[in-house]
Write a structure and sequence with these properties.
homodimer, 463 residues, alpha+beta, Aminopeptidase, Alpha-Beta Plaits, 2 domains, four-stranded antiparallel β-sheet, 36% helix, globular, Succinyl-diaminopimelate desuccinylase (chains A, B)
């Protein structure tokens, strides 16, 4: 692939800018709200729009029906010797409520100050479309791509991707690839493009403690009957020490430590601790001793209580010794922690803490391991080079504290490196009113994607 | 006062049995629900019934209007050299809901198996009336009482006795007495009459911890921001150790220890630990080391969490790092603990435990000291002797784990020993559907009350 070929593609991308915005607007007008069954025809219409669009580019897309909303699949021609990239994205959107908080109606895309406002603008119609458009530009300009690109675009991401995993498992061969490209995250900050190379996993639980068979009068019974809310407080307090270290036996055994390069990358990021605290309205932070805030949020395992329920929660004082107390809590995991081992450690810690007069029920909600693409991955390097082309600057390497369960599935089932290339901004109001996408970021995304196919194609498959 | 005088009174009580039940039924028919303003006329009607009834006995009762429901006051003639007893009771009742759980309508008293079923049957119309009837019997049989008895019957007990305290303070001289007689508690068990000689006090608090200014995503922020629900668990856990000892500085300094006689009295009670646990559906108990269940419930200070609230409490898993966490909790106090000192100790313990990133608000709801009448009190002995006459057996001496705030006020303002003489049973369904009063207990109560005036009168006021 000559440099001039890519440049011709990039020139075309430049010329087509307005058309891309028109196409995006058209897709944004379809209220493909997957959570609300009365929008099912619109969800289907959005899938149909994609099929038509991909067909118009010379591909032979498939509309794949599932028990829920359909998948859209398409692929470019195979290129022997070159890697295969699979683009994953979704055409469904979050419900737009509360409607009265929107400046323009959520499905009437409106451009203000260089940003397009509509539900789905970044999440994920706009970001997903950057890859569709870059492939279109390659096809128009060059007639073919320098590597095979496969598209798998789903319509159930906002409702838990219920039917995606089974499709991946049943069609792993068809979907075989070397890397998965997903643009459904954000840049680190405006003007600071980022590659997210790691996600934390999760292990989520609910514990129910039951004491007496009914709420008791705390005067008549208090002191003589074990109080489940106190037992719960003691158990939760025992899970983490005052240095922020989690006390489950074996919890840190498999934790992959941060490398020097990673710690340096994070330290180099324009993260302002004071601004962070101010924005959250807090006067300081606590956390695992010896780690920075970004390290704690992205690369260290953590424990959080997500909910507490017991006894009387109304106004004023009620003298009750509650029958029950329960807590929802989660551990965020990092590679190579195994959620199953965490559950075992949790039971080992909690079971001896159940006092006489209390029974414990532990609900294991769901678990997903953390994931990290080594910074040395050639696909990560190719993506960084492409971002330099598209954005005019090198990306930072960041991790994400949350989990994207489907990323784990892609990595596990397809055995491929997952490239999380976000073009959006942290304040793009995903899942909130006035969702937006900066048009310059949309264009940079398309340019980066166009360059990415070139950079990936140059990776020597034999090394 | 000769023995035969009392016996004549007791003979009359015996003869009047049926009439007493008729009178009680009449009072029970009045739905004097103090909590519901639409029953205000009925509350007034019940007060009027009492005034008429006391007047018919030859007293000159007063209906005392307050900003709420009226008080009824009456007194017998002063008896120089004899002590003065003040009977406190209430003619108002709890709402009867849920109505569909009643076998007979709550204000249509019905006798089944020797028990009268109606709202207010024991609490407190039936128990209060035993003293009215005993005085009536003395007046009818003897023309006078061997001591002065004052009645103060209120109509706001079930709604917090809002206007009683100011009345006590403003009329302390009029109400002056040596002992206060209250029948608004229970026997220890059927056939085990009891004198309740001690009540625990209370200090009730609510703590609010606030972290970030909104609920955060536990993946994105977890580990980097102090979690208020974890901070709350740690604080609550720090209040009490694993031996059930409360860790507030100075908490035990003023605690009056149980005497040997008290421990023996409690040990002699027919309390079945196994039956207690079985009834509550628990497989054991915990509590302050070195004390029995009754000692823990009646005579030792305790800590109970009454409510916990934080974060997500709905179904399933929500990955939230909550903005707030709060708990309601109380300490039950014994003499001579001072609620104000408890508050000071609590602040001393909790304030250093507030971590960076959390602000604490501590709400001090209400406090009342505990109260104990020394077992050596001559009034207590007189009451025990009277119970022997009325029930045919000596009473046990028990304490009560709860607080009766008004008892403290009587003790404090009138500087009198308070005799809590309960004729009811623990299963009389106070505040529940199918409230009842065993007619034999009603009769024993009247007999005991009649004997009480005799026994109290014999106390030498000079010793």
């Amino acid at each position: 692939m000559t440099k001039s070929t890519v440049n011709r593609v990039l020139d075309l991308v430049e010329k087509q800018q307005e058309q891309y915005v028109v196409d995006l607007s058209e897709l944004l007008r379809i209220p493909s709200i997957s959570a609300d069954s009365k929008y099912a025809p619109d969800v289907k219409r959005a899938a149909g729009w994609l099929v038509e669009h991909l067909g118009g580019m010379g591909l032979s897309p498939e509309l794949i029906e599932t028990a829920g909303h359909p998948l859209v699949y398409a692929e470019t021609a195979p290129v022997p010797g070159a890697p295969v990239a699979l683009v994953y994205g979704h055409y469904d959107v979050q419900p737009p409520d509360p409607l009265d908080k929107w400046t323009n109606p959520p499905f009437e895309p409106t451009i203000r100050d260089g940003r397009i406002y509509a539900r789905g603008a970044t999440d994920d119609k706009g970001q997903m479309l950057t890859h569709v458009k870059s492939v279109e530009a390659w096809m128009k300009s060059n007639g073919s791509l320098p590597l095979q690109v496969k598209f798998l675009i789903e319509g159930e991401e906002e409702v838990g991707s219920e039917h995606l995993e089974s499709y991946l498992r049943e069609h792993a061969e068809k979907l075989a690839c070397d890397c998965v490209v997903i643009s459904d995250t954000s840049q680190f900050a405006p003007g600071v493009p980022a590659i997210t190379y790691g996600l934390r996993g999760i292990a989520y639980y609910e514990v129910h403690l039951t004491g007496p068979n009914r709420d008791l009068h705390s005067g008549v019974f208090g002191g003589g009957v074990t109080n489940p809310a106190i037992a719960l407080s003691k158990m939760l307090a025992a899970i983490i020490d005052d240095e922020g270290r989690i006390q489950l036996p074996g919890f840190y055994d498999d934790v992959v430590p941060l490398t020097e390069r990673e710690r340096e990358e994070f330290q180099g990021l324009p993260f302002d601790q004071n601004a962070f605290e101010q924005e959250l309205g807090i006067n300081g932070v606590t956390g695992e001793a010896g780690f920075s805030t970004l390290e704690r949020r992205w690369a260290r395992p953590t424990f959080d209580v997500c909910g507490l329920t017991s006894g009387y929660q109304g106004e004023g004082a009620k003298t009750v010794l509650p029958s029950q107390a329960s807590a929802k809590f989660s551990f965020r995991l990092v590679p190579q922690q195994d959620p199953k081992k965490v559950t075992a450690g949790l039971k080992k810690l909690l079971e001896p803490l159940v006092p006489a007069g209390i029974t414990m029920e532990l609900v294991d909600y769901h678990g997903a391991p953390g994931i990290v693409i080594p910074l040395e991955s050639p696909y990560l390097s190719a993506a960084a080079d492409a971002i330099e082309v598209g954005f005019g600057k090198r990306p930072v390497f960041m991790r994400e504290g949350g989990s994207i369960p489907i990323v784990n599935k892609f990595a596990e089932i397809l055995d491929a490196d997952v490239l999380l290339l976000g073009w959006g901004q942290n304040d793009d109001n995903l899942h909130s009113p006035n969702e937006k996408f900066t048009l310059a970021d949309f264009q940079r995304g398309i340019r980066t994607s166009a360059a990415l196919w070139d950079k990936l194609a140059k990776i020597n498959q034999d090394t």
